[in-house]
């Protein structure tokens, strides 16, 4: 039988997980959404099957439709731990990732104020996302560089979701690398408009959309080995730092 997450631990984790920065805010928003869904008692096997279209936000809370039952999540008293707010913040950036460039996504995650009791309830308005976003898995995997497999949509597995939720609830928040913004973001605060109003509707036809996806797949294929190369570089830097410290310590000992 599934062991429920401790409400106090979930609240603490929601206050610690970031909503801003690349890539911390990107991971943080997804994991905040996962935590509120898991805390609502939705089984991980059902979370793994959810799509964006299964979540609706109307200003009075949100409804998560699963094959067995619809889960109603009311607005919380504190914006920092409000379940619908956590979902809205995640859906907004997931919509950007699916329909706009990575540069726009990164800019949207920069310089957002921390969420606390004085923050605005971003779930207070109806949320609308692009129809293409609606068909995506609600909780996709994200690699260490922030990439999501949106060209070949695949959700996180039940086991991965369970592990992520329990790790976050236990206070083991991963410190993801911070990367500087690629473009300047003139917006100083979290937008309060809906995703549909904040992001102008796209007019690309199906052929141009398919061409863009094909180009994205080709680019990822060409860079498939980049992650391994970067890991090797990081490992080599760490090795050289260790050797340098050892040499300096040996020199001081003399």
Offer a concise description of the structure.
By secondary structure, the chain is mostly helical.
Description:
By secondary structure, this protein is mostly helical. It has a 3-stranded antiparallel beta sheet, covered by helices on one side. Strand 1 (55-57) and strand 2 (61-65) form a beta hairpin. Residues 181-199 have low confidence and may be disordered. The protein is built from 10 helices and 3 strands; from the N terminus they run αααβββααααααα.
Terminal residue distance: 61 Å
Low-confidence stretches: 181-199
- Mean of all residue-level pLDDT scores: 82
Strand percentage lies at 5-15%
Outline the fold blueprint:
Layout: H1 7-16, H2 24-39, H3 44-47, E1 55-57, E2 61-65, E3 70-74, H4 83-99, H5 102-108, H6 131-134, H7 158-169, H8 195-198, H9 206-222, H10 226-253
Antiparallel strand pairs: 1-2, 2-3
Helix pairs in contact: 1-2, 2-4, 2-7
List keywords for this structure.
254 residues; mainly alpha; 3-stranded antiparallel sheet; 10 helices; 5% strand
């Amino acid at each position: 039988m599934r062991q429920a997450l401790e409400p106090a631990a979930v609240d603490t984790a929601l206050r610690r997980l970031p909503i801003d920065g690349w890539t911390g805010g990107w991971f943080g928003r997804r994991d905040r959404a996962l935590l509120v869904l898991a805390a609502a008692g939705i089984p991980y096997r059902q979370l793994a099957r959810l799509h964006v279209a299964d979540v609706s936000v109307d200003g009075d809370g949100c409804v998560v439709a699963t094959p067995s039952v619809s889960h109603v999540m009311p607005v919380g008293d504190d914006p920092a731990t409000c379940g619908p707010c956590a979902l809205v913040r995640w859906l907004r950036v997931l919509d950007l990732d699916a329909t706009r460039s990575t540069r726009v996504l990164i800019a949207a995650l920069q310089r957002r104020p921390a969420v606390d009791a004085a923050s605005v309830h971003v779930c207070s308005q109806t949320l609308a996302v692009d129809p293409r976003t609606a068909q995506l898995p609600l909780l996709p995997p994200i690699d260490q560089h922030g990439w999501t497999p949106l060209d070949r949509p695949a959700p996180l597995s039940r086991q991965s979701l369970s592990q992520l939720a329990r790790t976050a609830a236990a206070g083991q928040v991963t410190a993801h690398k911070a990367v500087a913004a690629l473009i300047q973001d003139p917006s100083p605060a979290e937008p309060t408009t809906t995703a549909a109003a904040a992001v102008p509707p796209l007019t690309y036809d199906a052929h141009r959309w398919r061409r863009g996806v094909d180009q994205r797949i080709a680019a990822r294929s060409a860079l498939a080995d980049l992650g391994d190369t970067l890991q090797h570089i990081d490992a080599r830097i760490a090795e050289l730092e260790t050797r340098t410290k050892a040499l300096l310590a040996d020199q001081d000992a003399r």
